Amino acid sequence: MTNRYSNRSKLSQAINDQPISSVALIMGDQLHAGHSWYKSTQDERLFVLMEMRQETDYVVHHRQKILAFFSAMRHFADALTTAGHRVLYLQLDAPDNTQSLTENLNWIVEQTTAKDVHLQQPDEYRVDQQLQQWAETANCAVHWHDSEHFLTQRDVLDRWFSGKSNTIMEHFYRRMRKETGYLMTVDGKPEGGQWNYDKENREKLPRDHDIPQPLCFANDVSVIDTMLERCEVKTMGHAEPRKLIWPVTRSQARELLSFFIENMLIHFGRYQDAMTTDGWSLYHARVSFALNTKMITPREVVDKAIEYWRSHQDTVSLAQIEGFVRQIIGWREYVRAIYWQRMPDYESVNHFNHNRELPDFYWTANTKMACLQHSINQSLDYAYAHHIQRLMVTGNFALLIGAHPDFVDRWYLGIYIDALQWVELPNTRGMSQYADGGVLATKPYISSGSYIQKMSHYCNDCHYQVQRKVGEKACPFNSLYWHFIDRHFDELSRNPRMALITKQWEKRADADKKELIQQANHYLESLEDL
Ligand SMILES: Cc1cc2nc3c(=O)[nH]c(=O)nc-3n(C[C@H](O)[C@H](O)[C@H](O)COP(=O)(O)OP(=O)(O)OC[C@H]3O[C@@H](n4cnc5c(N)ncnc54)[C@H](O)[C@@H]3O)c2cc1C
Ligand code: SF4
After folding, report:
1. For residue 27, what are the contacts with CB-CB under 8 A and spacing of at least 6?
2. Is 103 exposed, middle or buried (0-12, 13-18, 19+ CB in 10 A)?
3. Top mutation candidate among 182, 327, 428, 432 for ligand 1, by most atoms within 8 Å of CB
4. Position 350 confidence tier, pLDDT thresholds 50, 70, 90
5. How far apart are CA 170 and CA 528, in angstroms?
6. Which residues have any ligand 1 atom within 6 Å of their CB?
7. Tens digit of each residue's pLDDT (9 = 90 or more) over 58-94
8. 359 preceded by cis ω (within 30°)?
């Protein structure tokens, strides 16, 4: 068994008084069983995992997120021990736990007299800085290692596109296809002759369509839940600690991946943007937590999906597999590259100088707007919403009302099971809030109610009427959309992708404009009541 260290106060007990010459740190998002560190066992190396208040408290997290991370870490520690490695696992409630990563490291180095500490490159800037600073004064030699997870390095954008101030995802993606050979023919052409089959995807879900039930696990994490209670860790959202639905071991992560490939890939791209009250994850993979904790690797995800597609081309079209591969080798690697290229400035950009707080219903789902109510409710219930709910419902609304990106970031970083800053920040601040002024997106992702109606079943059951722009029960997205266009008119009219819309606004009669702006102002003054 792992020396899970909760109530014994002597580290020597945990390590059985055997000499330790090196310590290797494993962060909660570094649960990569295939890492070269574990190829052989070394008697004098101690692997260390720590639960810490520094990580539970840097933002208010969804309860399921903390439960899933700690449970996955504990399982990983046990698996290492079973494989013959020496492991120290510091629980959140261990008396000697200083709750700080670097203070714990100092304490462990001192107690073990280890001469060397091995670190995997962290994915979050905050942790990277903390460890870099610690390494400068540490009382031991510090050795850095690649996490061996991603397909690209942090500085890939500078290496591939040096000198170009802006690199769009599509260029990055094509280069990734060429570099990896994924979905490429032997003569170096994209499979099927096209790079991107997006136009064949993105359909609305038919009303009578039966979506397969998602695979949910029933992991008992009540011991961790009780510990969180005892330690008074502040969380948001709901959890059933005896039935945590998220994968917490590598074998569960692989099972979830296989389930997706065999049952969901068939319609992945087609209904990727669809929204419905009949289900909460539709044909999405729900592998982001497993990927972001590194329980599975992007390479195995893509290899398995392509292998399945190759032998099932009669049922799974090229458009479906291409759409999926693009998310993993395109978007996921791309946002990471943007993050490392742009940090630390990226976390404070606020292009539109927005400063409003998010309404309370982001934490309660207590709103009459059916789209927001459903998207937020399921986020509170499952710590999950799919991409279009995040982008075109909660993100869209936050941008239209002019919410400060700090508040928006904090909400996204807390609520989602997969939220780690390297992937959350570019998606939220960049893609969804356009706070970077167009680094990641070529135009702000805003829409009126008509897009939500086109892609969802929400509007039929809403208190508001999607066709109405002004007056009683007018859909708030409509007037807020035009209010946004009006207040950023000068900038938007210079963007070729927004030209049509800004021209439409320009041509409107002044009386119409006035009515729309008044309606929007009324809604902005009564956001909590919407
Ligand atoms: C405002 C906003 C915030 C987001 N925050 C996060 C976050 O904190 N963590 C996170 O992992 N993703 C985030 N995303 C991206 C995306 O929404 C999630 O990766 C996806 O919803 C996870 O669910 P899934 O595994 O079912 O994904 P699927 O739709 O099945 O896609 C498969 C995989 O592709 C990858 N992927 C797809 N889109 C993106 C993207 N835009 N960026 C990076 N990877 C992508 C993910 O690894 C995902 O698991 C955010 C998107 C938006 C618009
Ligand atoms: S009518 Fe407007 S507020 Fe209601 S669900 Fe549709 S888009 Fe959302």
Report:
1. 120, 122, 127
2. middle
3. 327
4. very high
5. 39
6. 284-288, 291-292, 327-328, 331-332, 335, 386-387, 390-391, 395, 412, 416, 418-419, 423-424, 427-428, 431-432
7. 999 999 999 999 999 999 999 999 999 999 999 999 9
8. no
